[in-house]
Amino acid sequence: MARNPYIVLGLSPKATDAEIRSAFRQLAKKYHPDRNPDDKKAEDKFKEVSAAFDIIGDPDTRKKYDRGEIDDEGRERPNPFHQWTQREATGGRGGYSQAGAGPGGGPGAGASFEDLSDIFSDIFGARGAGRAHGGGASQMRGRDVRYRLEVDFLDAVNGAKKRVTMPDGKTLDLSIPPGFEDGQTLRLKGQGERGPGGAGDVYVEVKVKPHPLFERKGDDIYIETPITLKEAVLGGKITAPTIAGDVTVNVPKYSSSGTVLRLKGRGAPKRSGGAGDQYVKLKIILPEGGDADLEEFVKSWKGAEKSRKDFAGA
Q1: How far apart are CA 237 and CA 241, in angstroms?
Q2: Which of 37, 72, 112, 260 is the most exposed place for a label (fewest CB within 10 A)?
Q3: Helix H or strand E encompassing 54
Q4: Was domain 1-89 assigned CATH 1.10.10.200?
């Protein structure tokens, strides 16, 4: 009878994803059949460790287990509300999961950008690779494959569909969810190398290219927009770019350089719904090459010195 996977791996239900992977690594190496030939107990222990990791090593499956929706063997319960426990699930923004290649995949829980199938390479070489999820050659799972992909800033923020050709010549369709951040990971289940126990996964770490105008901080977007001296003094309407296109912005009268205007809901989409804000920093631009009329006006302007603010403590 299967045991609680946290107990099998010697962990608390509050363990982080990294702690789960670390515990699995240690136990899998200790009990791997190649290290313990003809040892039935070690083989059974390896299978138990692998089965436990199959449940809580995958963020999606772990959440179902923590909610009581599946049992210790990974089977769905008839009514999870009757099986409520005090287990706690951890979440994060570490990545996204896609059910397979193509636009049909959608955002999911965080997927670690790590090839767990190579944890035995330093001990067993090629023989051990791909056995992380099985008890023998007949259940060897194909290796996971990792890639890195550069995408444009606006594609990452607004979401996009990309058809990319991997180094091995394989073509994959990727759905980049709106609000995607630099360094996050796309997981395509079953698109890795094939094996007798099923195909591995593909993990794509996304590198977001910088944008010449926009800067992202969390879910908020920042830009710097030039305005004329006339617009700064008299106020008016200007056009400012946003990640969804140009919008009209009202500049208040007597706006100094450095004034920041907030455009609510014009930032990056949030996974929880809604969007961040965009902040527009105004910068007064004087005429290139000078302007004689402006110089004469400033010379005769009696209130010029009144606009200077005193330095603190002066």
Answers
A1: 13
A2: 37
A3: helix 40-56
A4: no
CATH classification code of 92-209: 2.60.260.20
95, β-bridge pairs:
185
* Predicted pLDDT of residue 234: 94
Residues with Cβ within 8 Å of residue 144, at least 6 apart in sequence: 115, 116, 117, 192, 193, 200, 201, 202, 203
- At 220-240, the pLDDT tens digits run 999 999 999 999 999 999 999
- C-alpha to C-alpha distance for 43 and 33, rounded to whole angstroms: 6
pLDDT at 81: 37
Full DSSP string of 219-269: TEEEEEEEE-HHHHHH-EEEEEEETTEEEEEEEPTTPPTT-EEEETT-SPB
- Do the domains spanning 92-209 and 215-301 agree at the CATH topology level? yes
Measured in whole angstroms, how far is the alpha carbon of residue 59 from the centre of its chain? 14
Q: Look at the domain 215-301 and name its fold.
A: HSP40/DNAj peptide-binding domain (2.60.260)
Strand duo 185-188 + 245-251: pairing: unpaired
Rounded Cα gap, residues 192 and 116, in angstroms? 13
Long-range contacts, stretch 25-33, CB < 8 angstroms, 24+ apart = 25/116, 25/119, 28/53, 28/119, 28/120, 28/132, 29/119, 29/120, 29/123, 32/120, 32/123, 32/124, 32/128, 32/131, 33/135, 33/136
Spell out, as residue ranges, where the chain has pLDDT lower than 70. Answer: 1-2, 78-139, 166-168, 303-314
d(CA 180, CA 240): 23
- What are 174-203's pLDDT values in tens digits? 888 999 998 888 888 888 888 777 888 888
